[in-house]
Specification:
Elements: H1 2-9, H2 11-33, E1 41-45, E2 48-51, H3 52-70, H4 78-101, H5 108-117, H6 130-140, H7 144-167, H8 172-183
Antiparallel strand pairs: 1-2
Helix pairs in contact: 1-2, 3-4, 4-7
């Protein structure tokens, strides 16, 4: 220990100590100045972030969907569930960003018009009901702004999907085969 202490007091020892400690000091100080990371942030996708509450809501929704199908919670693999939900949120965020870059947006007037046509928001008289709308928001624990944002994002993704599918070129042979398959019929005789 004395030899190490004597070495660190010498000029070569001090230089070596500075070379070893400077990266640690710089990386440690960086976390004070550049560490603006939200502790509730699960993932960062471009400029957008996926928050903990959004992630937990998506996991709970997906778990509920799966339990409606299988009725046995022991069949669910939680690790796979969490991984699939996170991947889905990241993919959706990437698609939303691409739709935004391409200028695929929907106005509030269009959203109002489309929401008024939804059957779930119509009252007994067949017209849009503010009570039904408010009840829907309460059940989902959402605000009107959140619903509009969600609806806007979904419509933008639908526009992106339609633009990709609408511009795809299919070979005539593949189209002919698809038409033939759809028109094909077979007779089946069963012997009992």
């Amino acid at each position: 220990m004395d030899k190490l202490r004597d070495f660190l007091k010498s000029w070569p020892g001090r230089i070596l100590l500075i070379l070893c400690l400077s990266p640690l000091a710089l990386l440690g100080v960086e976390s004070y100045f550049g560490g603006n990371v939200d502790p509730n942030q699960i993932a960062q996708v471009g400029d957008a972030s996926i928050g903990l509450s959004e992630y937990q809501t998506a996991v709970n929704n997906r778990r509920t969907e799966l339990l409606d199908q299988v009725d046995d919670a022991s069949l669910l693999n939680e690790d796979v569930l969490h991984e699939q939900v996170l991947k889905g949120l990241i993919d959706r965020t990437l698609l939303e960003q691409q739709a935004g870059k391409l200028g695929m947006t929907v106005s509030d007037d269009t959203i109002n018009r489309l929401l008024r046509q939804e059957e779930i928001f119509k009252g007994a008289d067949g017209e849009f009901s503010n009570d039904q709308f408010a009840s829907f928001l309460r059940q989902r624990n959402m605000t009107k702004t959140q619903l509009f944002d969600e609806f806007r994002n979904q419509l933008s993704l639908d526009q992106l999907n339609a633009s990709i599918v609408g511009t795809a070129a299919y070979p005539m042979k593949a189209v002919s085969q698809l038409i033939d398959l759809q028109l094909e019929s077979r007779n089946i005789w069963l012997h009992r």
